[in-house]
Amino acid sequence: xxxxxxxxxILPNGVSATVSENLVQVTGARGNASYSVxxxxxxxxxxxxxxxxxxxxxxxxxxxxxxLTRANLANIVKGLDTxxxxxxxIVGVGYRAQMQGNDLVLSLGFSHPVKxxxxxxxxxxxxxxxxxxxxxxxxDVGEAAANIRAIKKPEPYKGKGIKYKxxxxxxxxxxxxxxxxxxxxxx
Length: 187
What we know:
Outer Surface Protein A, domain 3
């Protein structure tokens, strides 16, 4: 039995869920979302809890879908209650970001500014070198943050570029450090 799948999802205040056949509809303060439950998996709402169950738990396919379905429903409930957020830092002299309407405009040392337009439901805010990506859908927030980071990944020598907040960049030794190490070992 899946350790994740058997855990009930507690519906916080302001979030409600309804189940009709294979469709789970969740409504919360940040909007509403629906999730199509795979065949062989069922969902129930009782006593402020959303539970997921599988018909044949011994089948490998259903065992995998069981935990996945529960995790996706839990992410929908959390997203509609509190939402998801990713923070990115811009590191580098002259690198900056600003908002133009809904679009993010980045100056990252290229010959032109780079414009990034987020999906609907994803909000971007910029404050002193920190880009905050937020929204109610975990997949869309993570994808938008990854796409922004991919515009200028941190380089390994000075760490310049766009990185996640609290991400550790492994720096390489430069040419001068390698030459000094090679000169001492050549005796």
